[in-house]
Amino acid sequence: MIITLSQDDRIEHPALFDQMFQSRAAVFHDRLGWDVVVKDGHEVDRYDEQADTVYLLAVDEHQQVRGSLRLLATTGPTMLQSEFRHFFDDDVDVSAPTIWECTRFCVPPVLGRTEQDMGIVSAELLIGLCELCIASGIEFVVGVYDTPMTRIYARIGWCPEVLARARPEIGNITAGIWEATPAVLSTMRQRLAARLRGRPVLVT
Questions:
Q1: pTM above the 0.85 mark?
Q2: Average pLDDT across the chain, whole number
């Protein structure tokens, strides 16, 4: 199940936020070695304090967070405009009311979870994101991702258009933009249904 939360929900749902921030610390700091600030086992940055921050959480029937992502309006401060700006020689300053930034996409590898399980959670999050965009009038999502993730997006059925590639000394990183359309949403739903039935997904 996908849950949408905002800053206003932090008091009402502290356990969900705690799990999300702990998972982010485990993935981005402990596993990937990113230069992020972790305090008391939680990875929280300045964008998590913004009034317009939106989160999508994939939770199971026991209210355990299986994955999460964060959305920011590009009309306000974003990571692409600041922290990630120096990654690219090309201009990646994207700002419009109908374009939002996705960051902190997090699907933690926990004990007993297979690669297929993680792929299903990733697909559920992207389907939830596309549904939210269409319902909210958001036309595009922009973000920075490890370039090898392209094959994962292709398998799920929502590939970004490349905006810029990071300088070689930064790493194999790409800035991309995803268009949220009913056709894309339909494709992702069909592919997830096939995976849940145990059928292979053919990517052309």
A1: yes
A2: 93
User: Is residue 106 a contact partner of residue 118, using CB atoms and an 8 Å limit?
Assistant: no
Q: What's the CA angle centered on 71, arms 161 and 4, to 5 degrees?
A: 120
| Residue 96, beta-bridge partner list | 99
* Six token digits for residue 141: 């999502």
Tokens 């268009």: give the residue: 179
State which H helix or E strand residue 145 sits in.
strand 140-146
How do the domains of the chain map onto residue ranges?
2-196
Q: Per residue in 127-179, pLDDT tens?
A: 999 999 999 999 999 999 999 999 999 999 999 999 999 999 999 999 999 99
Fold of the CATH domain 2-196: Aminopeptidase (3.40.630)
Specify whether the CB–CB gap between 108 and 191 falls below 8 A.
Answer: no
Q: Which pLDDT belongs to residue 115?
A: 82
Residues whose CB falls within 8 Å of the CB of residue 96, separated by 6 or more in sequence, listed in order: 74, 75, 140
Place of tokens 């939830």: 128
179 to 21, 25, 26, 157, 170: CA distances (angstroms): 28, 29, 30, 12, 26
Classified as helix, coil or strand, 64 is coil
- Rounded distance between C-alpha atoms, residue 17 and residue 45, angstroms: 13
Instruction: Estimate to the nearest angstrom the gap between the alpha carbon of 130 and the chain centroid.
Output: 11
Per-residue pLDDT of 183-201, as tens digits, reads 999 999 999 999 888 765 5
